[in-house]
Structures are given as C-alpha cells and as structure tokens.
Amino acid sequence: MKSSSPGRLTIGVSILLGFFALYAVAATGGYHLLKKYPFGAVEDSTREYFDFLTVDSSARRVYLTHGTEVKVIDADDGALIGNVTGLKHNHGLALANEFGRGFITDDGQVIIFDLKTLKVIAKAKAGSDADGVIYDATSKRVFAMNGDNNSTTVIDAKNGIVVGTIDMGGHPEFAVADGKGTVYDNIGDKNEVVAIDSRTLKIKSRWPVVPSCTPTALAMDREHRRLFIGGRGPKLLEVMDADNGRVIQTFPIADRVDTNVYEPETGLIFSSTRDGTIHIFHEDSPDKFSMAETVKTEFGAKTMGLDTKTHNLFLDTADFGPAPALSPSRPQPNPVAIPGTFRVLVYGR
Which one of 226, 246, 280, 310 is least enclosed by Cβ atoms within 10 Å? Predict the structure, then answer.
C-alpha cells in the first residue's frame, strides 16, 4: 500500500477534528425555538387568559389552562386532542394517572375530570383564588393552594372528597412533593418555605427565604434534597436544603419568574420569566450550582413544562397590548393579552 503524504494526513486529521467539533456542538448546543403552535380565542370569552401548563410525558399530552377551558394537545405534533370545557377562570392542573383523574383549580373550586374522556365528573369546594395545585402520590392526595384565603385545600384523589384544610399562615404559591410524604410550599408574602406532612396535614417546618425575595416558583431535586425557589423581588433563584432550610446559593434572574423545573437526567434547573427569558442552571454537585445558559423567548412566556422524554420545554404566551391606565384598584397595571393570539412555544436542543 502506498503511504499517505503529510499533506493528505493533515487534511484527514482536520476533517476528523471538524467532525468531532460539529458533533460536540450538536450534543451541547443551546436551547432554541423548535416549534410554535397557534390557537384561537376561547369561544365563550372576550378575555385572553392563560396560566399553568402541565406535561404528561408518558401519555404524550400537554394540558394548557386557558381561560374558561383546558386545551389538551399532543406533545409530539401540537395537534389538539380535546378540551375540558365549562370552566370559569382556571389556573393550575394536577394529574393523578393511577386514578385516571385530573384536577383543575377554577374560581374557588377544584374541577375533577376524566383523563380519557376529558369530561367533568365532580367538583370540590376550595378557597377563593385557588391557584397552584399538585398531586402527592405518597398520600394519594391533591393539594390546592388558596392564595386569598391563606390556606390549602386537601382532596382525596380517589373519591374527590375534601379531607382537610391547612392554615398556611400566609399567601401560598406553587408547591412540590418530595415523594416521601412531605409537601413544600412557598409563602409569598411571608418570604418563607413551609414543609407539610402530607398524611397528618400538619406544618412541620417554616424556613425563611434569605434574602427575602417574594418566593413564587418552586421545583425540587428529590434525590439530593434540594429546593429551587424563584423570587420576584429581589429577582432571584435560590437553592435551599430541603431538610433544614439552609440557603446554599443564589443567582439573579429576570422579572416576574413564574415556573421552575428540575430535570434529574441532566441536572439542569430552568426558570421562566414574564419578560421572555429562560435561565438555565446546572447542578455541579448538591452544594455547587452554576449558570449554564440564558435563552430569549417571548414576552409573557412565564409558565413552562418539561417533557422528560424529549427534554423539550413547553411555554405559552400571546401578543400583548398596552397596560390600562393607573387607578386606585390597579396601581401597577400589566399589559393586556390580545384575544386570539394564544400560542405554545417548544424549545429544545
């Protein structure tokens, strides 16, 4: 065989290096917009409103709370599967797949629907401003956070019966369950995180969020017992030890965070904010975290869900008009979403 010349060898090495460089970029490239799914206005409403979204990766569904309905779309192609209708003003949604039921917070009540038919099958009374809601698989209970009532309504997921109400001592925000019988919740107006025994419904601990940051969004690394708290004022992501309340690390983030998500497979923490930014952090170790990436999305895209199968992020937003004029009842008016412009954004690598 004729030996290769030095020039050809150099070219070959260069091609190989180029290939590996491209592979590395593809493997570690940044998050970017993959898909956009537009949806029309709600038929029986003149107001454009949307809130939490919930991704069911195993069933390949995404649930979108949208004014007086919940849209259910296919997680792979965005096709509309169906709607849960007849709602008043819904906010959050939790899934209890083992009972084939979903739970929607809606204007002072929790709407219970069948996951197969999407038909409403029951209603449970909650407090006014029932907002965030989660299902705790350990106790088989649903926890609905009632902002104006400073309470949490607890519902048996199997039979839909209210089994208790917890006095939270402040305005509850989003919550997470650790899978071992504890539910954690942010208390926004008290700058606290509370730990609730999901079986006895007693508050076990109250920990201050330091520095005070009006905590709203919350996610958890269950394995390493770390809470990820998103605050709005000052605007921070805080990492807290879930066993003793010790604040481990803080990072600045953009305005009006609404959702935090943790992905165990990659060790990434995602925070989405109203100004149209996703902040991405990495868990280098349980006691050390670093900023990984900042992704620009669209204004209003502050609610987010993670598809654990594809690692894609789902967010929703709309076009916005100017904020209404200042008034005694609206000292800080927000821009108003324009009906018929609601859409879902999918980001991935």
Answer: 246
Token pair, residue 313, equals 């992020």
- DSSP-H helix ranges across 112-233: none
| CB contact at 8 A, 191 and 212 | yes
> Looking at this protein, which amino acid is placed at residue 131?
D
Which runs of consecutive H residues, i.e. helices, occur in the chain? Answer: 6-28
Q: Look up the pTM and report it.
A: 0.90
Burial class (CB in 10 A: 0-12, 13-18, 19+), 320: middle
- Rounded Cα distance between 187 and 323, Å, is 28
* pLDDT > 90 fraction of the chain, expressed in percent and rounded: 84
C-alpha separations of 68 from 191, 226, 252 in Å: 31, 35, 35
Give residue 326's pLDDT: 85
8 Å CB contact between 339 and 38 = no
Pairwise CA distance, residues 66 & 207, whole Å: 34
Confidence of residue 332 (pLDDT cuts 50, 70, 90): confident
Q: Does the structure show a pLDDT above 80 at 76?
A: yes
Query: What per-residue confidence (pLDDT) applies to 3?
Result: 39
CA 166 from chain centre, in angstroms, equals 23
Sheet with 288-296, strands from edge to edge, namely 257-263, 268-273, 277-285, 288-296
Contacts with 3 (C-beta within 8 Å, 6 or more apart), sequence order = none
Q: Within 10 A of 119 (CB to CB), how many other CB atoms are there? A: 11
Distance (Å, whole) CA 247 – CA 238: 7
